[in-house]
């Protein structure tokens, strides 16, 4: 079994390498997306795949604000109110589920970094579950990524507030 498992892992590594080459080839053909992806990749928590996805998305769709980006990703809270009743807020989940998955995984990773950990901890202190705090962090990271793209500036960690 060890030999078969090793062969499987080697094959998966080859597929990953091939996908990364395809990503690089695609970015070479799209200079604006490549520039955006390189800036976004500087933000702790964002890897090659997510920064490429966001770089392409930001250059292709005309977002006007961070709120629009968050709503397009489906990470905006949707009210469940009626008359006097004020129901719980839930994610709208409009937009690509894959994008939400990528952003959630980036936030889960970023929550362990010195830059984002205080923000994540502040959300947990408010009483949010770990999943909810991760979604809030993903929303914040998405807004920061859009700001880095929109202002065409390198990521500056001093501009990210660590608290609530």
Topology (elements, then pairings):
Elements: H1 2-29, H2 31-40, H3 48-60, H4 66-73, E1 77-78, E2 81-82, E3 85-86, E4 90-91, H5 97-110, H6 117-125, H7 130-151
Helix pairs in contact: 2-3, 2-7, 4-7, 5-7, 6-7
Which characteristics define this entry?
single chain, 164 residues, mainly alpha, two-stranded antiparallel sheet, two-stranded antiparallel ribbon, 7 helices, 4 strands, 63% helix
Distance between the termini: 50 Å
The whole-number mean of residue pLDDT values reads 90
> Which structural class do you get from the secondary structure elements?
mainly alpha
Q: Which shape, going by the Cα principal axes?
A: globular
Percentage of residues in helical conformation: 55-70%
CA-atom Rg in angstroms: 18 Å
Beta-strand share of residues? under 5%
**Low-confidence runs of at least 5 consecutive residues:** none
- How many domain modules? 1
Largest sheet data:
2 strands, antiparallel
The beta-strand count equals 4
The number of helices is 7
Q: Give me the strand/helix succession.
A: HHHHEEEEHHH
Strand order within the widest beta sheet:
1-4
How does this model look, in words?
- Helix content is 63%, strand content 5%.
- It is mainly alpha-helical and 164 residues long.
- The chain has one domain.
- The strands form two sheets. A two-stranded antiparallel sheet has the order 1-4. Strands 2-3 form a two-stranded antiparallel sheet.
Question: What is the compact description of this entry?
Answer:
With 164 residues, this protein is mainly alpha-helical. Helix content is 63%, strand content 5%.
